Amino acid sequence: MTALLEIRDLRAEVIGEGVEILKGVNLIINKGETHALMGPNGSGKSTLAHVIMGNPKYRVTSGDILFEGQSILNLSTDERARLGLFLSFQIPEEIEGIKMRQFLINSYRNIHSKDERTLLDLNKSISELTQKLDLNQDFLERYINTGFSGGEKKKSEILQMGFLKPKLCILDEIDSGLDIDALRIVSESLNSFRTEEMGILLITHYQRILNYVVPDFVHVYIDGRIVMTGKKELAEEIEEMGYSIIERELGININEE
């Protein structure tokens, strides 16, 4: 079976700085799987997400990224999005002049060009998803993330995921800045949007979202590479003991990374 996403010994640096940030990442995500990526601040988790999406700020120096068996290294970010890759941002950008509803419909038409549903049908779907996320309908008439609270910005990301129906969702700290009620709503919506054809890479510092979104695999990410993989129990152990578990079991001194 061809993996949905396969990362092979991926190394990358910030263009112009010459400092290696990804230091040999290996990861396989199959359809229907949810993978949690955990690690301390500054370990390069967000960098990995941006490199997968083709952020031009970074240069891949070696290795490969395969999506459904084909290398995507030479594809632009928008080409990767059309293939079905989606990234929710840790800190979503505010975009003046483009309303949420307009953005959602234009993006959907761009990605799902063969879908012949009417504008009325698409608007109905958007309204249903907005209600599920406990957002007012006037939210759709506001400019993207402009004046949104932290919780609204994260709900906006999940709304995009639910409506655009990507094949691979990379969620970069979707739980940060959420109170317990917003975390529950976001998590429940995320679970309802998951399908057997979708893969999810959930990047987080904390175990709390994994109480709602149960991962198939948990990866510990230190200094630009995955150093340990386990099940949900690994996340629970990290929550209890911190990343000292890595120091103990692998002999890695995180303070020196």
UniProtKB/TrEMBL annotation:
Note the Pfam families from the entry.
ABC_tran (PF00005)
Ranges for domain ABC transporter come to 5-248
Report the GO molecular function annotations: ATP binding; ATP hydrolysis activity
Alphabetically ordered keywords of this record:
ATP-binding, Nucleotide-binding
Gene3D superfamilies in the record:
P-loop containing nucleotide triphosphate hydrolases (3.40.50.300)
Of which family is this protein a member?
Answer: Belongs to the ABC transporter superfamily. Ycf16 family.
NCBIfam families linked: sufC
Write the protein's name: FeS assembly ATPase SufC
